[in-house]
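During the second year of the project, the team shifted from modelling isolated chains to modelling whole assemblies. The rationale, set out in the original proposal, was that interfaces cannot be judged from single-chain predictions alone. As a representative example for this report, we include one of the complexes processed in the last quarter. Its constituent sequences, exactly as entered into the pipeline, are reproduced here:
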Amino acid sequence: MDYLKGLNDAQHEAVTTIEGPLMVLAGAGSGKTRVLTMRIAHLITNGVSPFNILALTFTNKAAREMKDRIAKVVGDSDAKSIWMGTFHSVFARILRSEAHYLGFPSNFTIYDTQDALNVMKKVLKELNIDADLYKPKKVLARISAYKNNLITVKAYMNNPELLEADERANMKHLGVIYAKYVDACFRNGAMDFDDLLLRTNELLTRFPEVLAKYQDRFRYILVDEYQDTNHSQYLIVKALASKFENICVVGDDAQSIYSFRGANIYNILNFKKDYPDAVTVSLEQNYRSTQNIVDAANAVISRNVQQFKKNVFSDNEIGEKIKVYRALSDADEAGFVAGNIWEQHNSQQRKFSDFAILYRTNAQTRAFEDALRKKNIPYRVYGGLSFYQRKEVKDLVAYLRLLVNENDNEALTRIINYPTRGIGETTQNKLIVFADSQGISVSKVLDNLGFYAPQLGLNNGVLTKLADFWAMIKAFEVMLKTDDAYTVAMEVAKRSGLIKFLKDDQTPEGISRVENVQELLNSMRGFIDEQQQLEDGDPSLSNFLGNIALSTDQDNNKDDDQEKVSLMTIHLSKGLEFPVVHLVGLEENLFPSFMSSSTREELEEERRLFYVALTRTEKQAFFTYAVSRFQWGKITDAEPSRFLSEVNSEYIELINPATESRFVNHSGLKSNIFDDEPSVPKSFRKLDPKKKISKASDALSLPQSKNLKPVSTAKIINPSGASSQDIEVGDKVRHDRFGIGEVVFLDGTDPQNIKAKVIFQNEGEKNLILKFAKLVKI
DNA sequence: TACTCCCAGATTTAA
DNA sequence: TCTGGGAGTA
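Output from the structure prediction step:
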C-alpha cells in the first residue's frame, strides 16, 4: 500500500472511504488530483474491476494525466479500462453506441458553437424572423439554458411561465425557433454540445434497460470539479449512481466559475441533501502556495456570502508580498510584465515556463504578445481561436464530415461552392427549398439528381456542376471503405481543389493557411497511428472528427515541455499552477466584467474567479492595472478593480504608488494603501494602433505545431517501452498486437516523437510511434 | 455568379 | 480593432 504513504489524514480518509456517497471539499492546492488518483488506484487494488469505474473530469488533459498516474500504481492495462474523460466525451461515446434508441445515426456529427450559430441563422432566415430582434447568439444562449435544465421544446411549450418570460423579453417566437432548430439538428444527424448531455438524459430516462446497463457497469463513480456541473450533468450522475450510490464528488465551491454555461453551485452545496448518509471530507491544507498568497486569497473570498466555511491554510514559507503595478496604459502594463519576466528570468534563474499571465478576456492578449515579442521572450497563448476553429481547417473538416454523415447540411453548404465551382447562392437555395418541400435532405436530391432535375428548374450547366461535385464526394466515400482516413483526407485536400486554392494566395497569411491544413493532416496521421496501437482504439474518420469537436485548447498542448511563458484566461488556468503569476487588467468593468457586476451572484462569481487566479500562484504574484486602456479602437479611462481593495494591505506592496488615489473600495471607503506619493512610471510607451501583428505567421513565437495534437480518449504513455536508442533500422521486433516484424524506416528527431515504419509478417506495413508501441527487440 | 468595398456593430468566460 | 453582412459592379 505504498501509494497511501505520504497522505495526510484527510486525504487518507478521502482515498480509503470507498463505499457509499462521499463529498470531498478540496481547497485550492490541497492535493485534489492526488486524492482522486490514489482513490481509483485504491479501488482497483481492493478488487474493484476498472471496468466498473467511471471518472468524469473537466478536461481531457486532466483525465489523461490521471490515467498516467494511476497506471504507475496499478499497471497499464487496468488503467486503460477505466472510463475516464469529460462529460461531453464520455457521453458522446455512450450516445454513439446507443444512438439508434434516439433515432440518430451512430456517426452523428457534433456541432460546435460556430456550427450551431450557422444553423440558427438559417433557421431564422427560413422563419423570416428579423435577426436584429432575435440575435442568433442570444437565442442560442437561451436555448442552451433550456437544454441544460432539461427543458425540451415540448416542456417549454407547456410552461406558461417561460412563455410569458420570453414574451416579456420580446421573444415570443422563441418556441417556434427552438423547435425548428432542434429539428434542423436532428435532420442533419447532429448534436450540439448541450445535446450531448440532454440526449444522454433522454436516453437514460426513456429507456430503463439502457439505464440499468450503465448503472450496472459504473458501480463506482467519481466526479471532479463537481461545483461546475450543470443541472443536466447533475441528473446524469444522479441517475447512474442511484443503484449503488458509490459516488464520490470532488470540488471546491470557492472555485465555481462556470455559471454562465449553466454550472449550478447548488449541486455541491446540496450534496448532503441528495445523499443524507454522505461522508464529507475537507482538504484544507494548501501545499501549493505561500502563506501570504493563501491568506490574501482567503481574505477576498471570505466576502462571498454563499459558501461553505472552511479554513484553507498553508504551512509553506510566508513568502513575498503581492506586488501591485499601476500602469498608465495597456501597453505600459504589458511592458512592465515583460520586463519583469525578463528580469526575474535573468536574476533568479527562473525558467520562462515558470511564468503565467492571467487575464479576464482573450482580447487582452495582444498587448502582452507585443511586449514579449519585443524582448524575444518565448510564450504560448492558450485559448482564443483554437486550431480547429480556423477557417481553412474547418473547411477541410467539413468535407470529411460530409463523407461520414451525408445529412450534415451544415458541412454541405460550407463546401458545396468552396473552392468556388459555379454553384452559387441561387442554386443552393433552389436545392434547399426543393429538398424541404419533398421532406428529404439535400444529399438525397443530389443522389438522384437525374430524377429530380426536371423539377429543380436549373439549367444544364449548373446541373453538370452539381453532378460533378457529388460524384467527387461519392468517390471519396468509396475510397473511405478501403483506405484509411488519412489517405482519404489527403485525397480530399488535393482533389477538391482546396490546397491549390489556398496555395494561390502567397501572402504570409495564405502560406500559414496551407501549413495549417498540412498540420491537420499530420495530426490525423498521428491520431490514426496512435489509435491503431490501442487495444480498443478506433482509427476511423468518424472517431477522429468526434475527437476534434470535443478537444479543448488545454488538451492540445501535449508535451508542452517548452520554455515558454503561458498566457491564458483565468478560466483556462483552473487546475494549473505556476511559480510566478501575473494577474493583469485589474480594473472595474474589465475584472469584474461589466457584463457581470449587476447582481450579487454575478459579482460573487467574479470574486471566485479572482480567487482561482490568485491561488494558481506558488511563490509570487503580481497584480497590474492600467488607468487607461485601448479598447474598441478608442482609449478609455479605467478605474482599479474593487478586488484590489479587498486584499488586505498587509499582503500587498506597491511598486509605483499612484499619483492620485482613484483606488477606492466600493463600500465607499478610501483604501489607505494607495494614497502615497506621486511617481512617474519609467516606461510610458506611445500607443501605436497602426502596427499590424501578423497572427499566425510568426513562426518564432507561435510555433504552429504545438497546438495541433488531437485528443485521444485513451492515450497511454508507456514509459517502459523501448526508447529510440534501442531500435534501429533493420531490427527484428515484436509488437503486442501485430506480432513480429522488421523495422524498415525511422523518422523524426524529437525523441518523444520518433516514428518507425515496421513490416509485420502477418499484418503488413504499419507506422508506429515508438513512444506508444511497445516494440521489443528480438 | 463572384468579388470588392464599405459600413455597422460588437466584444466575457467555453465543452 | 476586427468581423460580418449587404450593396454594388464586372
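Chain A has five domains: 9-100+200-283, 109-188, 314-378+563-654, 388-549, 731-777. Residues 363, 366, 630-634, 689 of chain A lie near DNA strand C (CB under 10 Å from a C1').
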